[in-house]
Amino acid sequence: MTAATASPGDVSANSLTAGRLPRWAPWALLGLSWLVFLVIFGFVRSANGGDFNIAAALFLGTVVFDILIFVVTHLVEGARQARDRLVTSLVATAFIIALLPLVSLLYTVLVAGLPRFDVDFFSQSMRNVVGEGGGALHAIMGTLLITGAATVISVPVGLLTAIYLVEYGRGRLARAITFFVDVMTGIPSIVAGLFAYAFFSLILKDPGVRFGLGGAVALSLLMIPVVVRSSEEMLKLVPNELREASYALGVPKWLTILKIVIPTSIAGITTGVTLAISRVIGETAPLLLIAGFTASMNYNLFDEKMMSLPVFVYTQYANPGSDVQPYLERAWAGALALIVIVMVLNLIARLIARIFSPKLGR
């Protein structure tokens, strides 16, 4: 077969003889470098009995990959392509370094939290439990109830505010709303908790007030500016031509917003709401102040103290008993459960965005 009649598959199959690296070569070198250093660090851990440093192993493997890709490319493709691949690999290295803290955190939480990530952890509370056993069912239910109530409060307020700023807002009022939204974005979480505590203490005339709805109000103060900002940016991305076409057909403005603007931007709005939920679901200080902590189940947002997962993790870690290990295992398992909940929420948000986003034909 001559070069003129060779198929593209034949050229890629003989890329080494043609002076080109296969497309899979960089990935293979990166994977091999990581594998070598993971094995080395595994042997070091077995010999010394210390912790397995996955971040250091991946970092050193990436550095070795940069050297290998330059040398291999220089031998096969020449100096010019070697420099090009080296710069590309350095950009990828910067991205990997930025991800290393996240990888290390996930690895640590998985290793420390899996021993107690069992059925008992999700089916029992801490009522009358001292030492081993028990679970975080009361904290998981409290987190879902409080965060759900905060979402119900925040999403309508934040979305309507964003619609006003984009579609109607002009003059001093719009500028004032934008200014206060920016200020609320930087409010410390404990200030939100103090506000909710002071508000309900004055309203109910009870200085020892602790209940789930107060925690939802505190979290909503942190969620609303995130919802406003994300929804506002998504609404601004809707082309004005769609609005003008709707107005040209005689559709009123409110119906245009309801039927055209919001459905077009629903995917981005859903993502923004999910980011707002992820922002507040791990807050500890405001819930510790206004929702309190308890070892028993409580399904009533309007009465008595209610436990949440962040507060559960804090109390288990900060106040261990004489046998520390069971408390630490429950704390790590609670942190892992919190990460899983956030991951599930993000998956649900992506599914909702995929279902309800407008279907554009060509």
Total DSSP helices: 14
Describe the largest sheet.
Answer: none
Beta-strand portion reads under 5%
Structural class category:
mainly alpha
Low-confidence stretches: 1-14
How far is the N terminus from the C terminus? 42 Å
How would you describe the oligomerization state of the chains in this entry? single chain
What would you note in describing this structure?
With 362 residues, the protein is mostly helical. It folds into 2 domains: 8-116, no CATH class; 137-356, Orthogonal Bundle (MetI-like fold). 74% of the residues lie in helices and 0% in strands. It has helices at 8-13, 25-48, 54-76, 79-113, 119-123, 137-168, 171-185, 189-204, 212-236, 240-248, 253-280, 285-290, 309-318, 324-356. Helix 4 packs across helix 14 and helix 6 (137-168) packs antiparallel against helix 11 (253-280). The two termini are 42 Å apart. Mean pLDDT is 86; it is low at 1-14.
Supply the key terms.
mainly alpha; MetI-like fold; 74% helix
